Every structure is written in structure tokens, then in C-alpha cells.
Structure of Penicillin-binding protein activator LpoB:
Amino acid sequence: MKRGYILLTLLVLFAYQSFAPVQCFAFETRRVVLVGPVDTARYQSKEINKIIQDSWKRVFRYPFYEVTAEIRSMEKPMNKAALEKLTRDQDADIVVATEIVRLHDITYNRGFWDDETWQEIDLLLTVKTYVRDNKQYQAFSVRRWQSEPLSINSGAAPLISDAMEEVLLKASFKRVPQEL
């Protein structure tokens, strides 16, 4: 009988701990607006848009960040003034805009006797960020180029994925904010 009370006490204690707020998470969640990808290259692809959005969502995760808006229908390049205005309009702490500046995807045969089809892709991806607290504006670009035989694994999606990995290394935003 005594074991039953001890077990019940432990279960109540664990239940209380799982519903009680954790003291180490006592900080302010930063509000984020994701813009894009802004497609000035006019290369419409849902797969590429998903790769870019999923990459940013790996960085801006709750409880440290809260993605309050995702604006996808932009066709004009974003500049510092546009990001500042978006920060005020959306009441956000951080605005991140990803822009596909150039994406040329050319498929060709190498020669008359060569029946192998090749694909050449030239990508220029630009990322612009604005932080409201310190009014910090950052812009950086990642360029990728490849020429390889056409296959199932070739195309713009692997290049975009690789470019986004480099962007995530360059970005000043990490999962845990520096104030902690």
C-alpha cells in the first residue's frame, strides 16, 4: 500500500513538472517575418520555395522565435527601406528576405555524336535581413554554378539547398538568442 502512495506521489510530481512553466525559458520570444523567396529571376517552382522556407524554419523555431507572417508573393527586390517598413507594419523584431536574383537553367546536347543531355545551372541567391532592436541591415549573396549530365538528381533544387546551407552558416541568427 505504501508503494502505491509513493508511485502516485511521483506521478503527480511528474505531471506538475510537465505542465509548469520552465524557469530557464524566461525570455522574450522574438517575432520574425519571412519574405520570399522574392523571385526576380521569374523562375516559378513550388519545390524551390519549399526548400527555402523549410531552411529558414529550421533556424527560427519556437520558443526562441515566432514566425508571425510569411509573405511569398513579392516580385520586387527588397531594400533596407522596404524591410524597415515591413518591420513597422508587421510589428516584427526581425525581417528576413530571400531573393532569387538569377537562375538560368539550360539543357543541351554536347555534340553531334554525343547523345547525352547536359544541364547547366547558374544561381545567384541574395539574403537580406533587418533587426529592429539595433537597426542592423545585412545583405549577402551566394552564387552557385554547375554543369553536369541530366539525371534525376540534377536540377536547381540541389543547388538551392546547398546555397541555403551556406546562407544559414552566414546568418547571424542561431537557435538560441545571444541574450541568454
User: Anything to note?
Assistant: The chain has one domain: 30-170.
